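Re: beginner question about structure tokens

> Can someone show what the tokenized structure looks like for a real chain? I only ever see the sequence side.

Sure, here's an example I had lying around. Input first:
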Amino acid sequence: MATLPTWRKSVPIRHQQNPLVKMQTALDKIMEDFYHDFDLPSFPTKEFENLMISPAIDIINDEKQFKVEAEMPGMGEEDIQIAINEGMLTIKGEKGTSKQDKDKNYSMREINYGSYERTIRLPDSVDIDKAKASFKKGMLWVEIPKKADAATQSRKLKVEKA
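And the corresponding structure tokens:
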């Protein structure tokens, strides 16, 4: 019987780390980064005052009326001005900071304070003399009924081949 020569290749020794240890190290880093994000330095709060804010609005234009609904949280009726001039509805508002908020050491501040102005073109069919506005719990509603003859002023056109 013939003997086969022993064939050995030198293999470097690797110290293989347990995969759970790698996962634990990665998780520790993630948690450290997460908690580090809450250590925010204090910053000047004047940057968050007197900004141009922009509350969200919805516009409804149906057969009977033109209606604007605006979210204006933190404002009261006395903070809002509404005007109609030359076919344009202008809504202005001012949301000021409370005296209780002065000189506080904020870690984070996301509430915006400042002025607001929005101008919306009105359709020709509205009767501005019958316009009315109401406000409750941070919501503003401006309702402008349409003129009685507005429905008769519309017509459909047939599209013809040119």
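Each token stands for a local structural state, so reading them left to right follows the chain. Residues 19-36 form the longest helix (18 residues).
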